[in-house]
Amino acid sequence: MTASESTDRPYGAFPVRIGLQVQPQHAQYADIRRTVAAAEEIGVDVVFNWDHFYPLSGEPEGLHFECWTMLAAWAEATERVEIGALVTCNSYRNPDLLADMARTVDHISDGRLIFGIGSGWFEKDYDEYGYEFGTAGGRLDALGEALPRIEQRWTKLNPRPTRDIPVLIGGGGEKKTLKLVAKHANIWHGFGDAETLAHKHAVLDEHCKTLGRDPGEIERSAAVGDKSPADIGKSLLDVGTRLFTVSSSGPDYDLGLLREWVTWRDEVNAK
């Protein structure tokens, strides 16, 4: 990164990291556990799951497991990787309870939790489990109300978290979501090509400026889909993305693409 790039995109100072989202669908838990162990052995930086109650692809009523009980198990089963949800649905749990759950997983993992959260979107989850779906705007407003409660609860718990738990917020809404990122998050997770992400970064930077926050404090994360580092690595790197997350679904959990990204990470960080 050149001097001008570090000035324009101070978040480019973060090292490249690779995440794996182990989608907890269409597989038995033993397969999920083995996948997490394999990812840690490969050298991934973060292992995520997601916070849904039903599969998002394939058989709608297929095998599926719950997010936060799984994270607690991962905290015991892993040693090095950070863990978290990509992302927790704010609607499904009382914010103070969620803060306590996160604090507990933080302690079980010896300080390796990333607290990923978003406003929620998958209507089937809401309908089947009896939550009010409402509107996208209403769910975002609820997230805005929950985040300060979560932060405050962390200061009251005994024992407190082992560290300032990193907060990851997912979503690309420019008026509400990215403003919440500027106010509360350590990591922003988005989707899209380099041009789309560069635009979102610029919007987030403006929110930071308005709130008096250094945009360089917020690590920029993106989903890479089924793309290889040869396809999109440099273009996303050039716009400031530093956490690149591969997704893998059951039942087979192919980690070939993950290995490519981990190798690329090591090459980039060695420069």
Walk me through the topology.
Elements: H1 3-8, E1 17-23, H2 29-42, E2 46-49, H3 67-77, E3 82-85, E4 88-89, H4 95-108, E5 113-118, H5 123-129, H6 136-156, E6 167-170, H7 177-184, E7 187-190, H8 194-211, E8 219-225, H9 229-238, E9 243-249, H10 256-269
Parallel strand pairs: 1-2, 1-9, 2-3, 3-5, 4-5, 5-6, 6-7, 7-8, 8-9
Domain Luciferase-like: 21-223
Pfam family, one: Bac_luciferase
Protein name: F420-dependent oxidoreductase
Q: Which class in CATH terms? A: Alpha Beta
Range of strand content: 15-25%
- The count of domains is 1
Give the overall pLDDT as a whole number: 96
Alpha plus pi helix count: 10
Largest β-sheet summary: 8 strands, parallel, barrel
Which term fits the overall shape?
Answer: globular
Task: Report strand order across the widest sheet.
Answer: 1-2-3-5-6-7-8-9
The name CATH uses for the topology is TIM Barrel
Give me the oligomer status: single chain
User: Portion of residues in helices?
Assistant: 40-55%
CATH superfamily: Luciferase-like domain
CATH architecture assignment name: Alpha-Beta Barrel
Radius of gyration: 18 Å
